[in-house]
């Protein structure tokens, strides 16, 4: 394996029923991570990963800590067997940013797990209070989609009538997020302007949009109480696509990214500037590996799940 590596952690929608089960059985490091997170949260996140039910794994309040737990278990098992390598940088897509920060030593595993569980619960509550959703727009660039969102939004009518660009996932894949009516207006406008497809995503709400604002204040209180350290290697922030440089920068980023867009394409190019010889997808599934292939086509990616774990069919 290449010596200079960049590591990646996925967000929601990367989950698979059964994820982490074999890694738990085969590697002491993976068992330790799952057991510590179960204990920290006082709930069997490992059992939800391994056994479901699938419906629970789809719920935001469970899905976020489950994806985090599996990603950290896979990362820990891989890292223990990867002596002689150097991590030159990391990034995580949305909730994956917590995995990157744990790997960089900025957050303790248990603290990050508690923050992720609270984040998922608060985002679920915000989703339940104002109905919203997300859609992938294929075939249009970031600027075009951002203009469409601005054109069809009606902020004077309240947050439910707003739609925003939530994820810049690559040159031809953008994700929009907002109230259902605004989301539909944006979908129709995108198709009229030449989008190849607009696909509704199976998520519980309008993440990375103003509809998540109710989650901000209670989450800020939890962040203020959480110990944070300086990153041991660069972690690229979702909201700015720049490295997190100090403790307060980390704290501000974790709060900001609840409502701010994920600038993933820019983040991958920023990480590529550190000249990694290889990239490691530390999550279940292949979501971030797939996105990276479109953003940095020359990147050589190793998927830890394919090496250490095989999930049951979802």
Layout of helices and strands, plus pairs?
Elements: E1 4-9, H1 21-26, H2 28-41, H3 45-51, H4 54-57, H5 60-80, E2 86-92, H6 96-103, H7 109-129, E3 132-138, H8 142-152, E4 163-170, E5 173-179, H9 180-192, E6 197-200, H10 216-225, H11 247-256, H12 264-272, E7 278-281, H13 287-295, E8 301-303, H14 304-308
Parallel strand pairs: 1-2, 1-7, 7-8
Antiparallel strand pairs: 3-5, 3-6, 4-5
Helix pairs in contact: 2-5, 2-7, 3-5, 5-6, 5-7, 6-7, 7-10, 8-9, 10-11
Can you characterise this structure?
47% of the residues lie in helices and 15% in strands. It has 314 residues and is α/β, with parallel strands linked by helices. The strands form 2 sheets. It has a 4-stranded parallel sheet with strand order 2-1-7-8.
Number of strands: 8
Low-confidence stretches: none
In round numbers, the mean pLDDT is: 95
Total separate domains: 2
Q: Give the C-level CATH assignment of the largest domain.
A: Alpha Beta
Number of separate helices: 14
CATH architecture of the largest domain: 3-Layer(aba) Sandwich
Order of helices and strands: EHHHHHEHHEHEEHEHHHEHEH
Q: Radius of gyration from the CA trace?
A: 18 Å
CATH homologous superfamily assignment of the largest domain: Malonyl-Coenzyme A Acyl Carrier Protein, domain 2
Helicity, as a percent range: 40-55%
Span between termini: 30 Å
Q: Strand portion, in percent?
A: 5-15%
Largest sheet: 4 strands, parallel
CATH topology of the largest domain: Malonyl-Coenzyme A Acyl Carrier Protein, domain 2
Relevant terms:
314 residues; alpha/beta; Alpha-Beta Plaits; 8 strands; globular
């Amino acid at each position: 394996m290449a010596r200079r590596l960049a590591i990646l952690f996925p967000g929601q929608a990367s989950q698979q029923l059964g994820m982490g089960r074999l890694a738990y059985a085969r590697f002491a490091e993976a068992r330790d991570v799952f057991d510590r997170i179960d204990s920290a949260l006082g709930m069997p996140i490992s059992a939800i990963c391994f056994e479901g039910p699938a419906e629970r794994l789809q719920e935001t309040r469970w899905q976020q800590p489950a994806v985090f737990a599996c990603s950290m278990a896979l990362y820990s098992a891989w890292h223990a067997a990867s002596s002689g390598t150097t991590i030159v940088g990391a990034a995580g897509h949305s909730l994956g940013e917590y995995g990157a920060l744990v790997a960089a030593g900025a957050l303790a595993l248990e603290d990050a797990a508690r923050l992720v569980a609270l984040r998922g619960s608060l985002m679920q509550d915000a989703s339940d209070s104002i109905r919203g959703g997300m859609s992938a727009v294929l075939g249009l660039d970031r600027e075009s989609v951002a203009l469409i969102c601005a054109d069809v939004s009606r902020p004077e009518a309240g947050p439910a009538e707003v739609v925003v660009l939530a994820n810049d996932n690559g040159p031809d894949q953008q994700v929009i997020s907002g109230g259902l009516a605004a989301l539909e207006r944006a979908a129709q406008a995108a198709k009229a302007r030449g989008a190849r497809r607009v696909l509704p995503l199976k998520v519980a709400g309008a993440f990375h949009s103003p509809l998540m604002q109710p989650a901000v204040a209670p989450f800020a209180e939890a962040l203020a109480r959480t110990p944070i350290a300086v990153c041991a290697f660069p972690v690229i922030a979702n909201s700015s696509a720049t490295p997190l440089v100090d403790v307060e920068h980390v704290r501000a980023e974790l709060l900001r990214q609840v409502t701010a867009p994920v600038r993933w394409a820019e983040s991958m190019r920023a990480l590529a500037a550190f000249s990694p010889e290889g990239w490691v997808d530390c999550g279940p599934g292949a979501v971030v590996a797939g996105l990276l292939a479109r953003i940095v086509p020359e990147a050589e990616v190793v998927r830890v799940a394919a090496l250490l774990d095989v999930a049951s069919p979802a």
